[in-house]
Amino acid sequence: MNVLNSSPGGADSTPASSDQQPDISHERKIIAIFGLFGILIFGGLLGVVKLATLSGDAEGAPAPTVSLENASIAAADHARVAIPAPAIANADPRYDLDRNGKLDNADVAMLAERFAQPLDDLRFDLTGDGHIDHQDIRFLRAELATRPATLSDLDRDGYFDNRDIALAAHAILGSQYAPYMDLDGSGMVDVSDLHTMRATLSGASSTVYFDLSLDGRADNHDVKIVTDAINSMSYSAYADMDVSGNLDALDLSLIRAFLWRNPEIMLDLTLDGRVDNFDVELLANAMSSMSYDAYFDIDASGQVEVLDLMQIRTALAPKTDILYDLNKDGVVTNDDLRLVATALLSPSYSPYADLDASGQVEVRDLTLIRAAIQMRGDTYVADLDVNGNINRFDREIVERAAKNPSYQPEADLDGSGRVDKADLATFDLLAPQVRAGN
Questions:
Q1: Which helix (H) or strand (E) holds 422?
Q2: For a FRET experiment, which of 49, 219, 226, 282 has its CA 20 to 30 Å from that of 300?
Q3: Which whole-number Å values give the CA distances from 326 to 84, 102, 359, 412, in the listed order?
Q4: Sign of the torsion angle spanned by Cα atoms 50, 300, 361, 272
Q5: Do the Cβ atoms of 231 and 190 come closer than 8 Å?
Q6: pLDDT in tens, 245-303
Q7: pLDDT tens digits, residue range 71-88?
Q8: Which of 347, 355, 359, 357 is nearest to 415 (CA)?
Q9: What is the Cα–Cα distance from 353 to 324, expressed in whole angstroms?
Q10: Residue 119 half-sphere exposure, CB side, CA atoms within 13 Å?
């Protein structure tokens, strides 16, 4: 896998062999844990700190906000989650350019259409300097600034959400000046115009802020928009979550931090509505890949590694029937144990079989999965040929393995790292009827 620092200027990557066993030190694990706590704390602050305040309506009542409860993360499919952006009623006639009695972006649009054209109507010369330019845009935008949501409702649909952010982001990448998108009236459309918009979204609703896919929820569909932009190594203002002017791990950290409020959503990499070994398998494949994919960089460290595997394994730990069902057939048996045993004998590292996310497949992984099998009953552990019966053929598997100079991990019933008479004794304890000839 590669380590990638993405920015508009380019990327550096360092490949690591998939055959090499990762060495994750104790210190790095501690750092990762503290880093995760930092992301969670930052995510909490993002949801409650008001970066901007929506002013009241024409009568002075407070504008409605969107709940930040966890339920808002998984809103109904395709629900419209946005901030109301009502026009300013009873507007000053000097600024109500379309003369409809309200002040909103429709008036700004009228002014923008006359930008840099001969002055044939004095009411559009708001600054009184004899021509129409970005100073007039700035003057009118200042009147709308008391209503940040109304100011940012660029598509003029009465709501402010990422649809409006997308319009501004597209204009930033454009080659020509778009006066209507110049929210601060600076004479150019750049990331500074996104600051007010992003701040308004963050102050009102984190769900709206991170709903990049515009499906009414915040989940890994939105993460993928950010990670695809990072992977492309080209700048995307729309995915620039911190409005820094470049794409990097911080943009990924922001959306990951918010989703960590609900790990079931955060770790659902397959986007099938649940966390299971299909998600682990995707992550394991990304770990074994020679190229970096930011989508699987769960801790936003700049690389896909064992620490990411640790996050998803930890989430699945209470669900042993899912965690150890490696062949995904709905039940934990010696068939799953064989997958670990095969990986244990392989010279290359298999992240999928690394059940404790230690950075290597070892006897401990066999012990973990065998314990999960034993929870179903001793007979399941002794059924080494997984045919549903415990008989002399299962005992013969242990006998042959004990005589074989090569280690046969599936017959190592006591988890000692070797197969010997102790394993035969363990088998006899598990299935005494076989030794008795029954």
A1: helix 421-430
A2: 49
A3: 48, 62, 18, 19
A4: positive
A5: no
A6: 899 889 999 999 999 989 999 999 999 999 999 999 999 999 999 899 999 999 989 89
A7: 233 333 334 568 888 888
A8: 355
A9: 9
A10: 13
